[in-house]
Sequence to fold (911 residues):
Amino acid sequence: MSRSGGVDDVDWSSRGPGAVLRQLGIIGLLVGALLLLHRFAVPPEGAGFDPTGLLAFGFVVLASYTIGELTMVVRLPHITGYLLAGVALGPSVAALFPYAPAPFDRGVLNPQVISQLGLLDTLAVGLIALSAGGELRLETLRSGLRAILGVLIGHFATVMLAMTLFILLISGIVPTIELPGFGGIDPLGAIALGAVVGAISFATSPAATLAILSESNAKGPMSRTVISTVVLKDVVVVVTFTIASVVASLAIGEGSADGNVLLVLAWHVLGSLGVGVGIGGLMVLYLRFVEKEVLLFLVGVVYVATYLSNAFHLDPVLLFLAAGFTVANFSAHGEAMIDSVQQLSMPVFVVFFTLAGARLHLEELAHLWPFALALVSVRAVAVFLGVGLGARIGKADPGTRRYGWMGFLSQAGVAITLAAKLGEDLGAPGRTLSTLLIAGVAINEMIGPVLLERGLILSGEVAPRNQPPSEENPSAEAPSPETTS
Amino acid sequence: MAVLIVAGAYLVARLFVDRLHRRFLIVSGLEYVVLGLLLGPLSPRLHLAENMTFAMPFIALTAGWVGLLRGTTMTARELSSLPLGTGRIVIWHHLVPGLLVGLVAAYFLTHITHWSWHFGSIPESGGWRQVAISAAVLGCCAAADSTEPFDLIVKRYRVVGPTAPNLRRAAHLGDVLIILVFGVLFCVYHHAEPGAALTLTPTEWAVVSVVLGGVLGALFTPFVGGEGSSNSRFLALVGIISFASGAAYFLDISPLLVNLALGVVLVRTSHKNRRLRETLADTEPPMRIVLLVIAGVLLEPVPWLPTLVLFLGFVALRLVGKFVASRVISLGTPLRPDLYRGLLAHGEVTIAMAVSFRVVWHGPIADMAYAVVLASVVVHDLIAPRVLRQLLRDLGELTEDRDAEVVEAPDPDAPEPADAPFEEPT
Fold:
């Protein structure tokens, strides 16, 4: 399957200093236009609608896209540019400049605007999960099952163990390294909370992984193993988090066993997968018998299915993964669906990652940075050891054995969602850990995509940027027409 | 349950209605307006109509798309190659029905509270302005016509004469004219309050609308001027239209006019204007469907009796206006006196104008005007292709050749067809 929507889909006619200056000029002019428009804004009459979100959306798409292009100059992936643009336009940076002119005093992407753009975020999550499910091919699973399972199990075991020990260590056992606001937890409770943190730390962002694989047009065993494992991991993350959080709530006295945990879990996971397969079946029927306006149909499916998943307490990510998997593997029209999803991939990635960047709480990172850095480091070491060990046991290809770990560090939506849920469900300790985890995600979100791309280059599945294609880099040798600049 | 009904309705629309369109020669779109009704006013539990703020990017995007597409097709070649009589058709066929409907609607809406229909009072705030802009919008929508019936006819029949392509050009040019007039309306009824940062006259606001579009067009040229894929152009267009529409709404000017001006400049400054037009045209069908669905969602319940009267008056006066216009332009010229039969459809420009108006103006009068426009679009798009077909049959310019289904729709950029298109056969 060809991927598109990537790095080389740029419109700039040259990449020299002139192009960079022009890009910087464009950003400057966009900022100037935004300032002028806010200066001369006419307040809406009566119940007239507020166009701030609309203007911000247009600005974000154009500015983030340009910043994404600029990051190529320093050989970073586009996604890093989108995230940085989100951080720069978000409320955290705006808080540092309270006397800046509107809209930069509150942030172009302030919480109100982020809320207004929530509908696009929903679309992005659905399309990314559909696309990720579509990447999971039965033939790949069959041929690489041993390697995928090896990586999955090795990674899971080491991350769970390492994170549990880390949380135990900062729970007050060693007073000098106690996490602020986390005292008074007994070791058993700390271990249980450590398991919850482990479950969240096990998550990797399918969106970031897909975005990097798309823009680099990577092809090879490591790419296949990484994306397949990342998609399967989501199921494991949801199951582990649900069980661990119930156990933890009992251990720290924040909940009670009602006997329905397994039922809830079964419904949440199996129900999501079942409904996802059903929706995938309906999509197959549509693609077979109607086959028109596939793009629009997909957008409709995403919103209807998201509505259903909210109404019936299902997991939308699992649901769309299952739907994408069904269409891609049990229909001759799977390619048509994936191609349509990819047609939307550029705006989706730009908006999704820019909003993700805007949601990063830098102030929390500033507050907890030593612990967040330690969390990220421990996780990285655990991933390195676990993936390396699992890949060897699973007899994975040399690239995955050596560099596969670099594909599992990025974190985004799922981790943030589960961390927020941890904060809501597990009282004061949960809130403290939630803040720590979100700060950790902020770091992982920045370094993960860069490391994945680096890993793909080292494994020979992607040509280094600005290097002519070689025989060792077949993917670079024959890029898809969509990714040719 | 409502969601499933809507999903089912969409599938039915896609599966069956498309066949009905071809069978009965109906411009596609009614089913999507109905779908919007199902999603909006008929499914209050979904609260979609109240939460349209979240759909604003989509609304502005689809309406802006219409403006930009019209702007990018307005080339010097297009204007210089217009056949004889087209300008007269465009002017009279828009001026007469527009003025007739607008003036009568203004009288009707002004006096509606004096009549015993228990309609209630016009809101205190901006009452006369709401009446005036509603009547003006009704006039604009009455004047508008559409190229869609021509495309539908050409898909199904072999059209041999010049009337269809030339009337199509007139309709296309009329779209641009109406967008300009609609943009001026936003300037005339601009609601900048005294003491605002920018207090301008309507003329100045009109200049701002055009200049803003032009400046943004020049600014955004690098985004669409290169060799990038259609995906990157799509991304750029999404951003450009959203920014331009957001800017227009920010200044309370017409997003359609700003995007039109933007399109005119963009297509001239971009080296790859053909690709730009292709991307716009490729993505037009889904945008059009979204626009129609949103149009249905935005419909508010209205008092049925005065709305019905207004609707019947609108349809009748529009028809009279078009009829009179055809008669007038045929005086002393070889043009046929019944060309109005080819210009009855409304099309997506009307929908885009109505939606742009609806998201800014609220109140019972605006709701009524909006409902009337929507109903008129449905009715006229049902009958217009058949009336056009009959006109072409009467002219002997239609061949009953079903094999001609593969014939492409006339390309607005195509060379000029045969001249003397509108002459009455002798």
The longest strand of chain B covers residues 158-159. Chain B touches chain A through 65 residues (CB under 8 Å). Residues 65 and 284 of chain B are 8 Å apart (CA to CA).
